[in-house]
Design a protein that fits this description.
Blueprint: H1 13-16, H2 26-42, H3 46-50, E1 53-62, E2 69-73, H4 74-89, E3 92-96, E4 105-110, E5 113-123, E6 127-137, E7 143-155, H5 175-184, E8 192-195, H6 199-209, E9 215-218, H7 226-229, H8 261-274, E10 278-280, E11 284-291, E12 296-303, E13 307-313, E14 315-318, E15 340-343, E16 357-361, H9 365-376, E17 380-385, E18 389-393, H10 394-401, H11 411-419, H12 423-439, H13 443-451, E19 456-457, H14 464-472, E20 476-479, H15 482-487, E21 491-495, E22 499-503, E23 506-509, E24 514-516, E25 519-522, H16 530-537, H17 539-542, E26 569-571, H18 576-594
């Protein structure tokens, strides 16, 4: 266990005082526990329910009981949840899942860590959901819950227009006109405006559309997908196709494991077309105002630079990416520099700089990709490392993801399992797994980087790249070849001293050294996610918004996919997997508000 301030401990066999938990019927244990839970729920006996958990057990909820993303730790907090929400939500009809991949299974996670995982379906007053339970053994041969997830999958009042519920009408000649009217919103205003037509905005719009909420996506660029198409030419996803599937429309079996950025751009453009999403490209929201009495937004939209539309909507969803405006450090002497400098968001290709000298400031994913591009074009390239970087090979990432994200495993179930444990537990598991990978599979890479002075870390408190993604949105690199170029000296490294100023020919450092360059790329990240919202909604609205991104005290992502401090305003942020999963939960929250079954003021825990 890494040294850190967190009190949580994994329920190891030694800690539980158990030596051999394997001679049991998984189905029998799961059935007995679930029957006890069902009986206690029927009697509204919250004390009996919490007695089914370890003292330091967890109940994680995804909008099923709380209409929020919450984690309750320990019996006291779990009882607080149940006392407030058990009767109000009407949790009932608990049914053990027996189908393959959901059935009870005893898992040996490590030599000293064993639990019994199973799923059950449930109903509430407002919908149906899936639960995932992790039971651990006690010395008296009883099993108690270490963690329980309850996740709402659908509303009882909402028929999703999918599969058997799809449109059965034969349309002879009227489809194009109908689509034009829908996209123009010539006869009505949308209920929701989504700002940003990247993968997150489109997936959110798709979820909203197919539960019956008219939704308009506003995209400032000329084409859907341009947010990927306009970035550096070598951009490619570093996680696998199975992890990055899109809802309702999945990649074909011919798709490469790692998706090039331009290819993803074209996919998103096709995705918007095939799912009949209503998108206004080359358009911007120029002004908004909130009416607290009617709980509506008045939104002024400049459409394609040709006309202005005033729309009245109930919800604004900001899907503008994982950061604010590009962030470039303020370094003195820039005017004296005779070369060119730019943020990584403006960079396109090293092919334009052959025969020159380049510096990339930063050592995250974009910095490595751009430095490798320079290297491949024979450019003299130096990366300036401001702080250590968490490095893990793409091969190791694929192996870790591949336990569930693979061809023969349903993506939806993988997503449910992936979110089923609270971050406090996942952090402890990652601390073990990341250190093992670093000491075995990736040892040669990390040792080689250390020899050339490249500084690495194992993530926040040793919990790997995921901890950095969830807390900071960056600071890591899934190695696809850049590390070897650094080790071999083809990409040079400068660190250990701060940048003092620009010079005519490059950068001067506090240690007195100078690096010459014709071009300097600042791969230094982006500003506050809330900045784009502030530009559109103003300071008064922005002052009410909570923290957005990073983990809250419960280990949930703050202000994203959930209430952020202001009615009718939402943030949708994440990689393709996170957006695929939680876009549904955001849509269900909005639908519940519109149906009058969710009033935040009524949910007090």
């Amino acid at each position: 266990m890494a040294t850190d301030p967190f009190p949580q401990r994994l329920p190891t066999l030694g800690r539980l005082g158990v030596t051999d938990p394997f001679n049991v019927s998984s189905c029998g244990v799961a059935t007995e526990w679930l029957n006890a839970l069902s009986a206690a729920i029927t009697q509204n006996d919250t004390a009996a329910i919490v007695d089914l958990f370890l003292e330091d057990g967890f109940w994680k909820d995804v909008i099923a009981l709380t209409w929020d993303l919450r984690t309750f730790e320990g019996r006291k907090d779990i009882k607080r949840l149940l006392d407030a929400r058990l009767v109000a939500t009407g949790l009932h009809e608990l049914c053990l899942s027996q189908e393959p991949l959901k059935e009870p299974v005893l898992q040996k996670v490590y030599e000293d860590l064993v639990w019994l995982r199973f799923c059950f379906g449930f109903s509430t007053k407002h919908g149906k959901g899936t639960a995932v339970v992790y039971l651990v053994p006690l010395p008296d041969s009883k099993w108690k819950a270490y963690s329980l997830l309850t996740c709402l999958d659908s509303h009882s009042l909402t028929l999703r227009k999918l599969g058997p519920s799809r449109n059965w009408e034969a349309n002879h000649g009227g489809w194009e006109e109908k689509r034009c009217q829908e996209t123009d919103f010539s006869n009505n205003d949308p209920t929701v405006i989504v700002i940003g037509a990247g993968h997150t905005g489109l997936e959110t719009a798709a979820r909203l559309k197919y539960i019956g909420l008219p939704t308009l996506v506003i995209e400032k660029k000329p084409r859907v997908g341009d947010n990927w198409r306009d970035r550096y030419k070598t951009l490619c996803l570093h996680d696998t196709i199975w992890y990055n599937q899109t809802p309702y429309l999945t990649f074909p079996s011919t798709w490469p494991v790692y998706t090039p950025g331009p290819k993803l751009a074209d996919w998103l453009e096709a995705y918007a077309s095939f799912l009949e999403l209503d998108v206004w490209t080359a358009s911007t929201v120029t002004k908004t105002s909130w009416n607290d009495g009617t709980k509506t937004w008045t939104v002024e939209v400049n459409r394609n630079g040709k006309c202005t539309r005033i729309l009245t909507v109930k919800h604004l969803v900001f899907a503008t990416g994982s950061g604010g405006p590009p962030k470039v450090p303020n370094i003195s002497g820039k005017a004296s520099f005779k070369g060119s400098s730019m943020h990584s968001s403006e960079f396109k290709s090293a092919a334009n700089h052959i025969g020159k000298k380049a510096i990339v400031v930063g050592c995250g994913s974009s910095a490595h990709d751009i430095a490798q591009d320079f290297c491949n074009h024979g450019v003299d390239i130096t990366m300036y490392q401001r702080s250590s970087t968490s490095v893990i090979s793409a091969k190791s990432v694929a192996t870790m993801l591949g336990t569930m994200y693979k061809d023969d495993f349903p993506t939806g179930l993988a997503d449910t399992y992936n979110t089923s444990l609270p971050w406090a537990v996942v952090r402890r598991l990652y601390q073990r797994e990341v250190s093992v990978v670093a000491e075995t599979v990736d040892k040669a890479i990390l040792d080689g980087l250390a020899k050339v002075g490249f500084k690495t870390n194992l993530g926040i408190h040793g919990a790997g790249a995921t901890s950095l993604f969830l807390e900071r949105g960056g600071g890591y690199y899934f190695d696809t070849g850049g590390s070897k170029s650094i080790i071999d000296g083809h990409i040079k490294i400068k660190n250990g001293s701060t940048i003092e100023s620009f010079t005519e020919c490059g950068l001067r450092f506090a240690d007195g050294t100078e690096l010459q360059a014709d071009i300097i790329i600042f791969a230094t990240g982006y500003g506050d996610i809330r900045d784009f919202m502030r530009e559109i909604c103003g300071d008064e609205i922005a002052a009410k918004i909570t923290r957005v991104w990073g983990l809250d005290e419960e280990g949930q992502t703050a202000g994203v996919w959930r209430y952020c401090g202001h009615d009718g305003l939402w943030f949708a942020i994440g990689d393709l997997a996170l957006s695929r999963f939680h876009s549904l939960h955001l849509a269900l929250q909005i639908k519940a508000i519109e149906e009058g079954i969710f009033n935040k003021a009524d949910v007090v825990i």
